């Protein structure tokens, strides 16, 4: 495991679109089980607006969040969008109920997903579209065919993947350029260490989903002393560790609270020492 001594504040998606590395994930602005609309839509809109006002210019969503309601909420809250705001979305899942996420890599479904996201987000072009999962029922070459068409048509600018291993990334790259990978990764779960290192070497963004692992309180006793030294919360330290872990990591912590959002944003200003980083990495 390697790290950089200083944390760059920004990263260029696809080598072109510069964004702040601390972004926002919209998944929590939905109902229970990521099903249905946000319980308080006006409050949810305020969170989105507060995120942009705080400097977030990278928001991650998916057509499956709600489904569809999250994309609609984002467009209602923020459209017309600031010129520097990148909204990333995902496709490739069906929703059959709360906490139910069957994979659907049918090319026709993918085609409909892309057009639906464009309409709901009120975009002419999706800057970053991500395949939510590989579907064993369809060769990924078939699944990605409509994505290739969408890129050629100017509907999608860049393409990413989610929850993939290195072999799958390399297979997808034979079809289309891949600029980002979104995998489960956090201080308490580092199963995708090799994928993170691969993306760093290739100049791809690595976007950890679940960056706080259902609450860093599980690790609180172990990181409390470091948090106290920085006058920070355990959540802020967990995010700061990720930012220091690799310069290609982009964070998308989600919350339905403006107060929690502001707390998360402060993580970008925490500079962990190499000693702090090493101590945390040994947990």
Structure description:
38% of the residues lie in helices and 13% in strands. The chain is built from ten helices and nine strands. It has helices at residues 41-53, 69-78, 107-121, 140-152, 166-173, 193-202, 220-229, 234-245, 258-265, 274-281; strands spanning 10-13, 17-20, 24-25, 58-60, 86-91, 126-131, 156-162, 180-182, 205-206. The strands form two sheets. A seven-stranded parallel β-sheet has the order 3-4-5-6-7-8-9, covered by helices on one side. The chain has a two-stranded antiparallel sheet with strand order 1-2. α3 links the parallel β5 (86-91) and β6 (126-131). The model has no long low-confidence stretch (mean pLDDT 94).
Which helices and strands appear, and what pairs or packs with what?
Elements: E1 10-13, E2 17-20, E3 24-25, H1 41-53, E4 58-60, H2 69-78, E5 86-91, H3 107-121, E6 126-131, H4 140-152, E7 156-162, H5 166-173, E8 180-182, H6 193-202, E9 205-206, H7 220-229, H8 234-245, H9 258-265, H10 274-281
Parallel strand pairs: 3-4, 4-5, 5-6, 6-7, 7-8, 8-9
Antiparallel strand pairs: 1-2
Helix pairs in contact: 1-2, 3-4
Gap from first CA to last CA: 13 Å
**Total beta strand runs:** 9
Would you tell me the overall average pLDDT? 94
* Contiguous uncertain segments of 5+ residues: none
Secondary-structure element series: EEEHEHEHEHEHEHEHHHH
- Give the count of structural domains: 1
Given helix and strand content, the structural type is alpha/beta
CATH architecture: Alpha-Beta Barrel
Largest sheet: 7 strands, parallel
How many separate helices? 10
Fraction of residues in helix: 25-40%
Which band does the percent of strand residues land in? 5-15%
Strands ordered across the widest β-sheet: 3-4-5-6-7-8-9
What's the CATH topology label? TIM Barrel
Computed CA radius of gyration, to the nearest angstrom: 18 Å
